[in-house]
């Protein structure tokens, strides 16, 4: 991995869409649409996306990354049409792991949420082998599934 200086940032601009609002699929229709506001789980997705945006330019040929942790504290609501800026800032790179502090603010400068993400960097072939279909089938014990290369 090409070194990432502590303090380096990446920005992701988001306009809240109806698909970003709270929707609990499994619940009855009365409770599924809890609130017409930006969902906490979408904020988590956007934190991960901003952290990924920071990391990708620093990956070397043959490297890949996978998320290993995300935390979110959702502080204030935002509504469909609101503009949100998500910033991921490198706070640590150690043992092939990038930790980013993340913050979401609206166009008025209000803090909407904060949290962190962690991504693990490693050989692309090994990461792919651990997450591909053959690895899934092997885990399920499907007969005839060959062990995923590089997983043993």
Provide structural commentary:
- The chain is α+β, with helices and mostly antiparallel strands and 152 residues long.
- It is 24% helix and 36% strand.
- It is built from 4 helices and 5 strands, in the order E-H-H-E-E-E-E-H-H.
- The protein has helices at residues 29-32, 40-55, 124-131, 133-140, and strands at residues 9-15, 63-74, 83-94, 97-106, 111-123.
- The model has no long low-confidence stretch (mean pLDDT 90).
SS element count, helices: 4
How far apart, in Å, are the first and last alpha carbons? 24 Å
Q: What is the residue-mean pLDDT, rounded to a whole number?
A: 90
Name the helix and strand elements from N-terminus to C-terminus, one letter apiece.
EHHEEEEHH
Arrangement of strands in the largest sheet: 1-3-4-5-2
Number of strands: 5
Structural class: alpha+beta
Main beta sheet: 5 strands, antiparallel
Q: Give me the Rg, rounded.
A: 18 Å
**Low-confidence spans:** none
Relative helix content: 10-25%
Overall outline: flat
Beta fraction: 35-45%
Topology:
Elements: E1 9-15, H1 29-32, H2 40-55, E2 63-74, E3 83-94, E4 97-106, E5 111-123, H3 124-131, H4 133-140
Antiparallel strand pairs: 1-3, 2-5, 3-4, 4-5
A few lines on this structure:
The protein is α+β, with helices and mostly antiparallel strands. The protein is built from four helices and five strands, in the order E-H-H-E-E-E-E-H-H.
What are the defining features of this structure?
36% strand; 152 residues; 5 strands; flat; alpha+beta; 24% helix; single chain; 5-stranded antiparallel beta sheet
